[in-house]
């Protein structure tokens, strides 16, 4: 067994509007772990995108790695992990899913579990409770997924999403649980049919890479954004300004509070500069689709 690994996991955006709990996209923003075997546990965060103080047993990475080792009836070897993350916490960029995928891969490497990609898709989605962010972090690219009642995930995976994406990260956190608590428990049938039709159109538009049409449907969500929008700083203003400056469309990234626009790559630099000048309190980042998913070196 090797004694050192680097594990890289992309962050992700979920939903892209109406693809609620199903559609994900791996982003070129990363969580990186440098792992080396040693005779006690040590987890070190190299930046602010992790807890500053924690007990080992409460750290999500350790919890997941231990859970997976236990599930496969293996002892988890002790190690030192240095974590560097470009994913701010509780902002809707899949930071938890990335740590879950990293924890599964950590156990996979440390315990030599030989997990398949399908195992990783199932395990990470079961832990998250929905497959959107988790599948995107495992595979990169665009993922359209369904998880059955036994936790088995079926994912349609598409690379070459050659548009650019701009994320608007506000300086406030929003926990997914809080953002899910405002959602209705039920929809009536006519409403659900319209919501699901918009999700179908989004998926189809992305599959044929009609990004203009995808942008239109990203703005046509009925499952969650109408109920979450009041929790999101400058929700309407950012969407309107993005459209006026050439974005195809803008949606909440996951449960928010980050928003994400899909834009033509040709306008990317000017677009970001214009939006940053208009929204100086947001951290605005130009990203693209990650093409690799979780990687181990
Ligand atoms: N699909 C999830 C949601 C993503 O919108 O709540 C965040 O976990």
UniProtKB/TrEMBL annotation:
- Keyword annotations: Amino-acid biosynthesis, ATP-binding, Cytoplasm, Kinase, Nucleotide-binding, Threonine biosynthesis, Transferase
Q: In which pathway does it act?
A: Amino-acid biosynthesis; L-threonine biosynthesis; L-threonine from L-aspartate: step 4/5
GO MF terms here are:
ATP binding; homoserine kinase activity
Record's subcellular location: Cytoplasm
| Major location category of this protein | cytoplasm
> What is one Gene Ontology biological process annotated in the Swiss-Prot or TrEMBL record?
threonine biosynthetic process
GO-annotated cellular components: cytoplasm
Q: Which HAMAP family match?
A: Homoser_kinase (MF_00384)
Q: Which family does it belong to?
A: Belongs to the GHMP kinase family. Homoserine kinase subfamily.
Protein name (Swiss-Prot/TrEMBL): Homoserine kinase
């Amino acid at each position: 067994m090797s004694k050192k690994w680097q594990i890289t996991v992309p962050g992700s955006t979920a939903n892209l509007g109406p693809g609620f709990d199903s559609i994900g996209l791996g982003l070129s923003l990363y969580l990186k772990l440098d792992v080396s075997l040693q005779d006690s546990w040590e987890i070190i965060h190299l930046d602010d995108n992790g807890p500053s103080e924690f007990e080992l047993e409460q750290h999500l990475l350790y919890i997941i790695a231990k859970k997976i080792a236990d599930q496969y009836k293996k002892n988890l070897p002790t190690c030192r992990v240095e974590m560097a993350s470009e994913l701010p916490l509780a902002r809707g960029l899949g930071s938890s899913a990335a740590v879950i995928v990293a924890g599964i891969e950590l156990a996979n490497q440390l315990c030599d579990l030989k997990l398949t990609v399908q195992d990783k898709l199932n395990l990470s989605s079961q832990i998250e409770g929905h497959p959107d962010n988790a599948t995107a972090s495992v595979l990169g690219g665009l993922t359209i997924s369904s998880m059955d009642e036994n936790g088995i995930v079926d994912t349609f995976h598409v690379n070459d999403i050659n548009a650019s994406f701009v994320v608007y990260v506000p300086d406030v956190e929003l926990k997914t649980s809080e953002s899910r608590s405002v959602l209705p428990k039920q929809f009536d049938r006519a409403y659900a049919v319209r919501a699901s039709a918009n999700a179908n159109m989004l998926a189809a538009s992305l599959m044929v890479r009609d990004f203009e049409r995808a942008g239109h449907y990203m703005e046509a969500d009925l499952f969650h954004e109408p109920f979450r929008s009041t929790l999101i700083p400058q929700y309407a203003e950012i969407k309107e300004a993005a459209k006026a400056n050439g974005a195809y469309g803008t949606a909440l990234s996951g449960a928010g509070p980050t928003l994400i626009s899909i834009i033509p790559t040709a306008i990317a630099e000017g677009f970001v500069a214009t939006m940053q000048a208009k929204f100086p309190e947001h951290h605005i980042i130009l990203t693209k689709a990650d093409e690799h998913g979780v990687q181990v070196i």
